[in-house]
């Protein structure tokens, strides 16, 4: 397995992964454009788990400066492992890549959010040292 930065040519495979997570994508070209946006942003990265069987996972990580103190933190924006490869270490390798990216960017903390119904994901994150914090508020802005 090769953990590498995503390329625009990975868009169709990434769409399949996002669909498995419950986020169906309509167009690989749109996803390819998002990958390019992330590639051009030095504060973020998208990694994939590339194997002979194709892409088995994707993770997106982004850094942000703290406002209330010095330093930066990082957020896992998305993590998906193919349903045919779960519990085989793919997610752990992707987390390692994201945490390495964050560490190399001077981050002091990592954050990830996960829907309440994803109990297996919660167990996975906790096994990697992430502590649950239950309060999150969202507000959709008009567009």
UniProtKB/TrEMBL annotation:
One Pfam family from the UniProt entry?
Answer: Acetyltransf_1
Q: Does the keyword ATP-binding apply?
A: no
Q: Which UniProt keywords apply?
A: Acyltransferase, Transferase
What residue ranges carry the coiled-coil annotation? none
Origin superkingdom = Bacteria
Q: Where is the N-acetyltransferase domain?
A: 1-143
Record InterPro entries: Acyl_CoA_acyltransferase, Bact_Acetyltransf, GNAT_dom
- Output the SUPFAM superfamilies linked to this UniProt entry: Acyl-CoA N-acyltransferases (Nat) (SSF55729)
Protein's name in the database: GNAT family N-acetyltransferase
What are the GO MF terms of this UniProt record? acyltransferase activity, transferring groups other than amino-acyl groups
Question: Does the keyword field hold Nucleotide-binding?
Answer: no
